[in-house]
Amino acid sequence: VFRWVNPLSVTGAERLRALPNKGVLFVSNHQTVFADGIAIHQIMSAALSGDGDSTRGLRYLLRPHSSYYYVAAAETMASGLIPRVLAYGSAVCVERTWKEGALVVSRNVDLQGVSNIERALSDGWVLTFPQGTTRPFAQGRIGTAHLIRAVRPIVVPVVVSGFYEAFGKSGLAFKHPGRPVRVCIKEPLALDYDAAPDVLLSQVMDAIEQSELHRAAA
User: Fold this and answer.
1) Is 69 exposed, middle or buried (0-12, 13-18, 19+ CB in 10 A)?
2) Which of 105, 107, 106, 126 is nearest to 115 (CA)?
3) 48 falls in which pLDDT band (50, 70, 90)?
4) Are strands 154-161 and 125-128 parallel, antiparallel or unpaired?
């Protein structure tokens, strides 16, 4: 798909090869339920197999990056056959504290989910979407900042674009074949892990270009 249907362009993939093989938290904006997370995994696998910034040389499919996890809402990964299959791959499922389906809820933090994220970081790389939704410029969730303070991972921002236009909200349909998609891997953030959670969250949201400043410029 990313080679022939919706061409994928990548910047910054060379930065992946300089990272340690565990303890890295990737934070990204979110445009589809599945397609952007799949693309980021493809980029990781290609970069670590020596294909550089390109996913066109398909040898990385023989050696996909296996120590890769992504944080997903438990309800989303139980919503159908394809999500259930994908969940068996690398999903770290958590219960959202503010939303369940179309309902707004308020419940305690899913401590088991947080523990599972910590375990995943101790084994490899973890991708999370701080907004917890595909809605652009949605508020970031403070749980991401608390996780960063507690675990102190290397935090790498990722910015994706074009995915909603290409695939629609689910990311599993060819909405506009031929529409290119883009992923930018940025430098790891220089963070003060002892800073207040709202300060850390603000840095993350600015780095993934979802802050109020970026909204005003859009």
Assistant:
1) buried
2) 126
3) confident
4) unpaired
pTM: 0.87
The HSE-up count of residue 91 (CA atoms within 13 Å, CB side) is 19
CA distance 134 to 161: 12
pLDDT at 105: 44
- Amino acid identity of residue 211, one-letter, is S
Which value, to the nearest 10 degrees, does the dihedral of the CA atoms of residues 161, 162, 168, 169 take?
10
Q: Give the per-residue pLDDT at 98.
A: 47
Name all contacts of 90-98 with Cβ < 8 Å and 24+ positions apart: 90/41, 92/116, 92/117, 92/120, 92/126, 96/132, 97/143, 98/132, 98/141
- 106 burial level (CB within 10 Å; 0-12, 13-18, 19+): exposed
